[in-house]
Amino acid sequence: MAAPEDTAESDRGETRETACCPLYHEAVELVGRRWTGAILAVLLEGTLRFSEIAQAVPELSDRLLSERMKELEGRGMVERNVISGPPLRVEYSLSQMGRELEPAIAELQRWATRWLGERSISTRL
């Protein structure tokens, strides 16, 4: 049974859990890190080289892109493929773990268009 501070009573008198799931929190923190969502959305389009990712997210510095790519690779969300031969090339793609975020990212994009699109337009005027 949950501790008293971890429960809340609904309007119908039912008790429900209110504590945030640690796995949910970890997922939100991971995907919600600065520029990570943009990188994942770009990689949903397919395999890209570092420079192509940088071009697709122009406000992102190379240093921060490199840092995020290492984090995503370390977490198993992105796969890095080195292609030998002159010139040496490195390509990045989403792993199965990363690709499975597609429905969540698509829904977030729809939500942003609906709820932030109008606000951002009226703010610019």
Task: Describe, in plain words, how this protein is organized in 3D.
There is one protein chain. Residues about 1-5 have low confidence and may be disordered. The protein has a three-stranded antiparallel beta sheet with strand order 3-5-4. A two-stranded antiparallel sheet has the order 1-2. The termini are far apart. It has a domain at about 35-115: Winged helix-like DNA-binding domain superfamily/Winged helix DNA-binding domain (Arc Repressor Mutant, subunit A, Orthogonal Bundle). The protein contains seven helices and five strands, in the order E-E-H-H-E-H-H-E-E-H-H-H. The chain has helices at about 20-30, 35-45, 50-55, 60-75, 95-100, 100-115, 115-125, and strands at about 5-10, 15, 50, 80-85, 90-95.
CATH superfamily heading of one domain: Winged helix-like DNA-binding domain superfamily/Winged helix DNA-binding domain
Q: What's the CATH architecture name of one domain?
A: Orthogonal Bundle
**Distinct helical segment count:** 7
Label the overall shape. elongated
Give the helix level as a range of percent: 40-55%
Total number of strands: 5
Assigned CATH class of one domain: Mainly Alpha
Average pLDDT score: 88
What's the arrangement of strands in the largest beta sheet? 3-5-4
Helix-strand topology string: EEHHEHHEEHHH
CATH topology of one domain: Arc Repressor Mutant, subunit A
From the alpha-carbon coordinates, what is the Rg to the nearest angstrom?
19 Å
For the record, give the distance between the C-alpha atoms at the N and C termini, rounded to a whole number: 53 Å
Low-confidence stretches: 1-5
What proportion strand? Answer: 15-25%
